[in-house]
Amino acid sequence: MDFLFIGGIGGSELLLIVFVLLLLFGGKKLPELMKGLGRGIRDFKDAVSSETEQIKEVIEDK
Description:
Shape: elongated
Number of helices: 1
Strand content: under 5%
Largest sheet: none
Order of helices and strands: H
Number of domains: 1
């Protein structure tokens, strides 16, 4: 499962994490949790993108 290699976490580790999350939160809460996590990641990426654009504008103005 090398194709799932993400920053030091391989496929078997991801499966273990998903299994533990299922045990902790159950099947009904997990989609809600993942949706919130996705929103958080998206907001973070948007903020980074916005800051990058502002830095580029400042550099171009000089």
